[in-house]
TrEMBL record:
<dbReference type="InterPro" id="IPR029066">
    <property type="entry name" value="PLP-binding_barrel"/>
</dbReference>
<feature type="binding site">
    <location>
        <position position="360"/>
    </location>
    <ligand>
        <name>substrate</name>
    </ligand>
</feature>
<feature type="binding site">
    <location>
        <position position="291"/>
    </location>
    <ligand>
        <name>substrate</name>
    </ligand>
</feature>
<dbReference type="InterPro" id="IPR022644">
    <property type="entry name" value="De-COase2_N"/>
</dbReference>
<feature type="domain" description="Orn/DAP/Arg decarboxylase 2 C-terminal">
    <location>
        <begin position="31"/>
        <end position="386"/>
    </location>
</feature>
<keyword id="KW-0663">Pyridoxal phosphate</keyword>
<comment type="similarity">
    <text>Belongs to the Orn/Lys/Arg decarboxylase class-II family. LysA subfamily.</text>
</comment>
<keyword id="KW-0028">Amino-acid biosynthesis</keyword>
<feature type="binding site">
    <location>
        <position position="246"/>
    </location>
    <ligand>
        <name>pyridoxal 5'-phosphate</name>
    </ligand>
</feature>
<dbReference type="InterPro" id="IPR002986">
    <property type="entry name" value="DAP_deCOOHase_LysA"/>
</dbReference>
<protein>
    <recommendedName>
        <fullName>Diaminopimelate decarboxylase</fullName>
        <ecNumber>4.1.1.20</ecNumber>
    </recommendedName>
</protein>
<dbReference type="InterPro" id="IPR022653">
    <property type="entry name" value="De-COase2_pyr-phos_BS"/>
</dbReference>
<feature type="binding site">
    <location>
        <position position="332"/>
    </location>
    <ligand>
        <name>substrate</name>
    </ligand>
</feature>
<keyword id="KW-0456">Lyase</keyword>
<dbReference type="GO" id="GO:0008836">
    <property type="term" value="F:diaminopimelate decarboxylase activity"/>
</dbReference>
<comment type="function">
    <text>Specifically catalyzes the decarboxylation of meso-diaminopimelate (meso-DAP) to L-lysine.</text>
</comment>
<dbReference type="InterPro" id="IPR009006">
    <property type="entry name" value="Ala_racemase/Decarboxylase_C"/>
</dbReference>
């Protein structure tokens, strides 16, 4: 990755800050974000779209990848819109001062309370997922005599190259209205008849960690076949086409993502060609990347602890975190790379298994990691943990969640505090009559 640097002490630095000093100052495990990298990723989308001056476009950061007040503020500073998928993510955004008009609300089961909250803060767009949501939102809007901008999420029937667990665009999906079975058309009809739901266009999301442009092109072409029918039959014109997120990143050498501009060029040229072919005006194009904005920017720093060598089989090296702060290896067999942060230049390497500290055999962060010979107390940096790391962190084994710092220009800033043991029992209520200690 371009973001790796080693200083004269042989220590890994991120954003000009020595990672060994970061662990001294903030403890471990520690999530570290290279802010410059996040800026670069946002800019890459913006300059890719700027090549098409006649086009209206929006890039929304999918905050499920990593949501915190500081991150949402940074997204706003970078001129990104925001995609939220729950009342909690929306609350974070509002607390952070993110302009509600630039927020899009997703989800396959938004509760009435969540929808109510979104309307109260004057959210920019609600992306309706299903018929129940049409009903709920219609009711809520009618009650307050207030319209809301919506997109309809459709499943375009396209499978993107990705891991099974994270496929969301194919026909058999819990998300969205199916194009092929007529559900999408029925939804368009229903909302076109609504006085409150202002249908601006369609949304689709074909998957995550995508390495080619084929899926996007197919999805767009498929959508246009229906759009041209709906134009004739329903007089529906699609002002906004949101093609979702899913742009891949390089966790390791097996991953070959395309440059951001290649995805955007393919999306824009396909939309333009299809609009032309079907004699429709070119819609606004929206994208909502999460992983590619924050994934490679994030690194997790751990301290190495215990060692176990099984002669002739393997050597386990355990870190002071694991599946509680990075669920992806256990959940998706996701592969990561690591460097020994305090001996980054050491040449004498060995192959070890990096284990987490959770009480579960599957808590292995990296199988067969090639790192310099290490000892207890050394610092291990697991790379590319910025997306779906902190956001999927959990309290398994009552491990407190690690702190998060932003680094840039040689300076670090704490953006999420480390949890304490007290935090872990904060919401526990006593059962025994005896006073607790
Ligand atoms: N838009 C929608 C509607 C989505 O469902 C997602 C991700 C995104 C945008 C952002 O996708 P991205 O650009 O980050 O690939 N926890 C999994 C990933 C789940 C993705 C869910 N949806 C993981 O750790 O790989």
């Amino acid at each position: 990755r371009g973001i790796q640097h080693v200083n004269e002490k042989g220590h890994l630095t991120i954003g000009g800050v020595d990672t060994v000093d970061l662990v001294k100052q903030y403890g471990s495990p520690l999530y570290v974000y290279d802010v410059q990298h996040i800026r670069n990723q946002a800019k890459a989308f913006q300059s890719a779209f700027s090549k098409y001056p006649s086009l209206t476009w929006h890039v929304a950061y999918a905050s499920k990848a990593f949501s915190s007040i500081a991150m949402v503020q940074l997204a706003n500073e970078l001129g990104l819109s925001l995609d939220v998928v729950s009342g909690g993510e929306l609350f974070t955004a509002i607390k952070a001062g993110f302009p509600a008009k630039n927020i899009q609300f997703h989800g396959n089961n938004k509760t009435i309370d969540e929808l109510d909250y979104a309307l109260n803060v004057n959210i920019g767009t609600i992306i309706i997922d299903n018929f129940y949501e049409i009903e709920c939102l219609e009711y809520l809007c009618k009650e307050r005599q207030k319209p809301v901008n919506i997109l309809l999420r459709i499943t375009p029937g396209v499978e993107a190259h990705t891991h099974d667990y994270i496929m969301t665009g194919q026909e058999d999906s819990k998300f969205g209205f199916s194009l092929v079975n007529g559900a999408a058309e029925e939804a368009v009809k229903q909302v076109m008849n609504s006085a409150y739901l202002q249908l601006r266009g369609l949304h689709c999301h074909i998957g995550s960690q995508i390495f080619d442009t084929e899926g996007f092109k197919l999805a767009i072409k498929n959508i246009y076949n229906y759009l041209s029918e709906w134009k004739k039959e329903l007089d529906f014109s699609c002002e906004v086409l949101n093609v979702g997120g899913g742009f891949g990143i390089k966790y390791n050498n097996d991953d070959q993502p395309l440059p951001i501009s290649t995805y955007i060029d393919a999306i824009v040229t396909t939309v333009m060609a299809e609009s032309d072919a079907h004699q429709m005006p070119i819609p606004e194009i929206w994208v909502e990347p999460g992983r590619v904005i924050v994934g490679e920017a994030g690194t997790t720093l751990y301290k190495l602890g215990s060692y176990k060598t099984i002669p002739g089989i393997r050597k386990y090296v355990s870190v002071d975190g694991g599946m509680a702060d990075n669920l992806r290896p256990a959940l998706y067999q996701a592969k990561y790379e690591a460097v020994l942060a305090n001996k980054a230049n050491a040449k004498d390497t060995e192959v070890v298994t990096i284990a987490g500290k959770c009480c579960e055999s599957g808590d292995i962060l990296i199988h067969d990691a090639k790192i310099p010979k290490s000892e207890s107390g050394d610092i291990l940096a697991v790379l590319c943990t910025g997306a779906y790391g902190y956001s999927m962190a959990n309290h398994y084994n009552r491990l407190p969640k690690p702190a998060v710092v932003f680094v840039e220009n040689g300076e670090s800033k704490l953006v999420i505090q480390r949890e304490t043991y007290e935090d872990l029992v904060r919401f526990d209520c006593s059962y025994s009559q005896e006073p607790t200690h």
